[in-house]
């Protein structure tokens, strides 16, 4: 009796263990800590807080809700938590927050992370801890280049896409000679380089490029200088972002540079910037966008849901955050586990077709999401039919052209 | 070249207006007002809110906003600064610094970090032919108005009895007290006035600069450099240094853009080596 009892206990324990090792799907047996934790590490009060920030967290929550609705009982787990933290755009804070999120908050994935230097810091932590990181907000190509690693993915856009779209596009449209002004820090310097390469590649030339103070509220010196350069530039390439870009454009209009034959092209611009300036101030300005809420019915439907939750129209970054979270959850679902190495395998080469893109592929070679990008133009006020509808999509850059080829210096 | 110089003066106009208020406040109260940039920002936001929510135009804002914020300044002085003044100067330094952060964050909470739109007043749209070159009307207006305001302040300070008292109390507070001038009576209105000047500069900035919560903190460091270059507490020095720094940074931007950020501070260091109390400061005032 006693013997039988012991073997029965063993059998039960065995069965329990087997259950824990679990079959695929359902039951959540292969989920560490019995739940999935998605951490949005973002800028909660600095210059990127509006284009990602708290609404990026909402976008990720929407992805979780959509995932649960799709799979219901069949979902790999129904315990999915979304947490967030502020990295203040500083690499050292990003580094310590990332460690804290992975170790203490048990995050399975870190998302968003605008600011290139902060993103690279998080990528290093992800690599060391063998945990998933999908960057959305940062522009640097280093994430899929020299500093790429097995656990880091880059989603949405990068500086190559911006330079290639706007630099090549505007040059081919006849804006051969450029005057580039760029903010004097890592982002600006990187943009200046990639734009110069793209412009030259398209048969144009950069007459001059000047670094400007960062942050800066007075660009008049540079704007006055522009028409007098020899040869006269046809395009002013502004690599500033946020408030600096707003300052620059206000002053560009005051000095009537457009009337003097110097067009404006913006290196990086978000719909929030257009809203700040009023669309007339930017009418006709070309830039590269990677998602626009009113581009088609599908985008609009998602943007309406987003607006119902947040009261705002989503930026391209927030849409990409949604997609990144959704694709991560799908990968966990397919693999039946949140074990990093298995999720990476599921993500590599995955096709992405959701509210963000229908042409996406997560490249296995360097973990970059490639997808169609768009050359956009700001509508004049007379064509703006409803709030926040500022953009006209001029052309589509197919996924294969929009992003650079995998960098041979990246080995995963 | 001439155009660049002119351009520098327009930029300098903002420095001068802000430095003027900062200098008067410092001179009289001995308070380094770190919240000055925040009031400049509130000035710009004030005009945005007036236009956006109440349809009040630029011209009225130019009057209403400085008056309202000036009154707020008076209250601030009465409620806090005044009580902290007898203590170590560090208390007021920390107070104004904290206040700047709080104001900035409150605005951020309400309006986000993106800039708010503010159109140029239609009467000042367009450009003026200045003979040698044409220049945007609005910039000319900004320069003219700030020269006028600085001039008016100057006249009041030099030609009136009130001005004489304030000037004496600003530049030699201890001596004035010893001569029987009731410095304390003038402290509150002077503080309010300094804040009103910052708000005025903010309203002027709204149509030509990005209206966002960070606009003040981005500018204030340069303005502190201006005040130091001019000589702490020297009213005339601050205005002169304001325009000078505007000029130097415009020319710096033109010839050596990569250095332009540090140029102001190089200038500051050079001036301090040559005259430790600043261009127009008195050694003992420190």
What descriptive keywords fit this protein?
heterodimer; A: about 400 residues; alpha/beta; Rossmann fold; 2 domains; five-stranded parallel β-sheet; four-stranded parallel β-sheet; B: about 290 residues; mainly alpha; ABC transporter involved in vitamin B12 uptake, BtuC; two-stranded antiparallel sheet; 2 strands; about 75% helix
Could you explain the architecture of this structure?
In chain A, β3, α4 (116-129) and β4 (132-135) form a beta-alpha-beta unit. In chain A, the strands form 4 sheets. A 5-stranded parallel β-sheet of chain A has the order 2-1-3-4-5, sandwiched between helices. In chain A, strands 7-6-8-9 form a 4-stranded parallel β-sheet, with helices on both faces. A 3-stranded antiparallel β-sheet of chain A has the order 10-14-15. Chain A starts with a helix and ends in a 10-residue tail after the last helix. Chain A has helices spanning 2-21, 53-71, 91-103, 116-129, 159-172, 186-201, 220-225, 242-254, 271-277, 279-282, 297-310, 316-335, 340-347, 399-402, and strands spanning 36-42, 80-86, 109-112, 132-135, 152-154, 177-183, 205-212, 235-238, 263-266, 286-289, 351-352, 360-362, 369-370, 373-378, 391-397. In chain A, α8 (242-254) packs across α9. Chain A has 412 residues and is an alpha/beta fold. Chain A contains 14 helices and 15 strands. Chain A folds into 2 domains: 33-157 and 295-373, Rossmann fold; 160-289, Rossmann fold (3-Layer(aba) Sandwich), CATH 3.40.50. The longest helix of chain A is centred in the N-terminal third of the chain and has 20 residues, at 2-21. With 286 residues, chain B is mainly alpha-helical. Chain B has a single domain, classed as ABC transporter involved in vitamin B12 uptake, BtuC, CATH 1.10.3470. Chain B is built from 11 helices and 2 strands. Chain B has helices at residues 2-29, 36-54, 58-84, 89-111, 137-159, 161-171, 173-178, 183-205, 215-230, 235-255, 260-274, and strands at 127-129, 134-136. Chain B: Keywords: Amino-acid transport, Cell membrane, Membrane, Transmembrane, Transmembrane helix, Transport. Chain B: InterPro entries: ABC_transp_permease, BCAA_transport_permease.
């Amino acid at each position: 009796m006693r013997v039988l009892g012991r073997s029965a206990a063993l059998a039960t324990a065995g069965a329990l263990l087997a259950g824990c090792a679990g079959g695929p799907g359902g039951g959540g047996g292969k989920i560490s800590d019995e739940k999935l934790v998605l951490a949005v590490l973002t800028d909660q009060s600095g210059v990127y807080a509006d284009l990602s920030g708290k609404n990026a967290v909402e976008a990720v929550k929407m992805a979780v809700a959509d995932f649960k609705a799709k799979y219901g009982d069949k979902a790999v787990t129904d315990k999915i938590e979304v947490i967030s933290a502020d990295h203040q755009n500083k690499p050292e804070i990003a580094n310590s927050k990332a460690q804290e999120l992975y170790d203490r908050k048990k995050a399975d994935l870190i998302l968003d992370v605008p600011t290139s230097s902060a993103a690279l810091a998080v990528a290093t932590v992800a690599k060391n801890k063998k945990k998933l990181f999908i960057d959305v907000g940062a522009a640097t190509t280093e994430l899929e280049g020299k500093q790429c690693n097995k656990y880091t993915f880059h989603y949405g856009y990068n500086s190559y896409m911006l330079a290639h779209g706007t630099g090549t596009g505007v040059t081919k449209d006849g804006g051969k000679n450029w005057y580039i002004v760029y903010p004097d820090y890592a982002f600006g310097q990187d943009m200046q380089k990639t734009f110069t390469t793209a412009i030259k590649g398209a048969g144009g030339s950069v007459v001059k490029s000047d670094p400007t103070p960062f942050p800066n509220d007075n660009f008049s010196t540079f704007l006055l200088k522009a028409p007098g350069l020899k040869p006269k530039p046809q395009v002013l390439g502004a690599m500033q972002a946020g408030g600096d870009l707003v300052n620059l454009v206000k002053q560009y209009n005051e000095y009537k540079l457009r009337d003097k034959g110097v067009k404006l092209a913006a290196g990086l611009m978000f719909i929030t910037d257009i809203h700040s300036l009023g669309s007339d101030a930017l009418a006709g300005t070309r830039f590269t966008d990677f998602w626009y809420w009113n581009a088609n019915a599908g985008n609009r439907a998602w943007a309406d849901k987003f607006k119902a939750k947040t009261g705002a129209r989503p930026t391209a970054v927030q849409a990409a955050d949604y997609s990144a979270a959704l694709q991560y959850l799908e990968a966990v679902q397919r693999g039946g586990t949140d074990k990093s190495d298995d999720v990476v395998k599921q993500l590599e080469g995955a096709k992405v077709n959701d509210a963000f893109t229908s042409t996406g592929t997560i490249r296995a070679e360097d973990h970059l999401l490639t997808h169609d990008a768009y050359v956009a133009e700001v509508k004049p006020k007379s064509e703006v039919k409803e709030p926040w509808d500022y953009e006209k999509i001029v052309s589509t850059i197919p996924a294969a052209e929009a992003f650079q080829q995998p960098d041979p210096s990246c080995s995963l | 070249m001439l155009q660049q110089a002119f351009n520098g003066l327009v930029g300098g106009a903002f420095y001068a207006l802000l430095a003027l208020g900062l200098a008067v406040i410092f001179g009289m109260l001995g308070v380094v007002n770190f919240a000055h940039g925040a009031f400049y920002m509130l000035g710009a936001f004030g005009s945005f809110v007036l236009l956006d929510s109440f349809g009040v135009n630029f011209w009225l804002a130019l009057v209403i906003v400085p008056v309202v914020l000036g009154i707020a300044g008076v209250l601030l002085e009465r409620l806090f600064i005044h009580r902290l003044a007898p203590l170590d100067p560090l208390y007021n330094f920390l107070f104004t610094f904290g206040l700047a952060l709080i104001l900035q964050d409150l605005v951020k909470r309400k309006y986000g970090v993106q800039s708010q739109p503010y159109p140029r007043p239609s009467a000042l749209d367009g450009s003026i032919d200045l003979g040698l070159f044409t220049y945007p009307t609005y910039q000319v207006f900004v320069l003219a108005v700030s020269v006028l305001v600085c001039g008016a302040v100057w006249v009041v300070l030099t030609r009136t009895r009130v001005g004489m008292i304030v000037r004496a109390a600003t530049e030699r507070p201890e001596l004035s007290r010893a001569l029987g001038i009731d410095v304390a009576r003038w402290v509150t209105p002077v503080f309010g006035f300094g804040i009103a000047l910052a708000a005025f500069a903010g309203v002027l900035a709204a149509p030509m600069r990005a209206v966002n919560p960070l606009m003040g903190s981005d500018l204030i460091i340069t303005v502190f450099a201006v005040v130091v270059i001019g000589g702490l507490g020297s009213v005339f020095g601050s205005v002169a240094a304001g325009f000078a720094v505007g000029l130097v940074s415009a020319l710096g931007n033109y010839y050596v853009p990569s250095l332009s950020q540090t140029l102001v501070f190089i200038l500051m260091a050079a001036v301090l080596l040559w005259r430790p109390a600043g261009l127009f400061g008195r050694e003992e005032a420190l």
